Amino acid sequence: MKKTVKFILAIAVVAMTVASCQKEGQFNPSKKISRQTITTTENGETTISRLEYQWDGNKLKQTQYYSDNQIGGIVSYTYDKKNRISQIEYVNTSYPEYPETAKYTYNGNVLEKIDYYRWSTDEGKDILIETRTFTHDGKKISKIEVSLHSIFSKSLSTTLDNASLFFFPDEIATTIAKDEKSAAIKGELYKTYQFTWEKDNISKMEIARNGYKTTYSYTYDNGKNPLYGLFDSFSTSDYDDVLSKNNILTINGSRVEDNVTVTMKPINYTYDYDGKYPTSKSCTIQYTDEYGQDVTQTKTYHFEY
């Protein structure tokens, strides 16, 4: 079960990105994705997940998440007069009585903050659980600050952020989860993202939280990222392969705690293309599980338009 959860967290990555040629909050690619299928093999076991994208003209109306052909969640999008995403509602089909909502606030043409709410049956209203505040350097996002307001922050939006823990020893992941719970109770600044850009791609991302610092560096090809520009905050993990205009070729990462550095094994991606957009993406992920055993996981993504 634990490995299954880690698998889901690691693959449930869609997008949140800023583009130099389009306004933040808008997603209107020339080639519109209709389905993404992810096949993962680990220890001889294969699991299949997929995301279905439903469009209403040039606007993404809904995203549905499936695991082994069972629907698990539905994300619905609302837009403002400038065709920017203004609100997203997420419903976990196993717990439809607890819908979650993300409300977007813009300052002119840039995103200022996202407030996350979750319905409380005890209080009979939405409870603010998390706020993400955005800082810009020119037209690009340079920093995101995450503040937790409630223990309900152990919801989808925050839990998916722990996808990066997939690459680190289990005892480190457990400590971070405890820190997150403490921060949620205190209602404090929990995590900060810092981005370094090279043209329209993120070249480095630094994540600081409660005394830990994780750094990722990236290289890219020249192909078009099919999810570039999609502000789907409930499906976002740590903003890596969905922040940039092009497609990631390599990821290198490390984590520093008490001046001790833990280095993750590099991840290399290969692609098949039809024109400028990918039809498939493959990678191999290597990590050490909670029993100290080395695990190799292969993942293949298939894109349909």
Fold and architecture overview:
Helices cover 10% and strands 55% of the residues. It is built from 3 helices and 17 strands. Residues 1-21 and 153-176 have low confidence and may be disordered. It has helices at 2-11, 156-159, 170-186; strands at 35-42, 45-56, 59-67, 70-79, 85-92, 100-107, 110-120, 125-137, 140-148, 189-198, 201-209, 212-224, 246-257, 260-263, 267-274, 277-288, 294-304. The protein has a single domain (2-304), classed as Porin (Beta Barrel), CATH 2.40.160. The protein has 305 residues and is mainly beta.
Short description:
This protein has 305 residues and is mainly beta. It is built from three helices and 17 strands.
Category from helices, strands and their pairing: mainly beta
Question: What composes the largest sheet?
Answer: 16 strands, antiparallel, barrel
CATH class: Mainly Beta
User: Please, how many domains?
Assistant: 1
List the helices and strands and how they pair.
Layout: H1 2-11, E1 35-42, E2 45-56, E3 59-67, E4 70-79, E5 85-92, E6 100-107, E7 110-120, E8 125-137, E9 140-148, H2 156-159, H3 170-186, E10 189-198, E11 201-209, E12 212-224, E13 246-257, E14 260-263, E15 267-274, E16 277-288, E17 294-304
Antiparallel strand pairs: 1-2, 1-17, 2-3, 3-4, 4-5, 5-6, 6-7, 7-8, 8-9, 9-10, 10-11, 11-12, 12-13, 13-14, 13-15, 15-16, 16-17
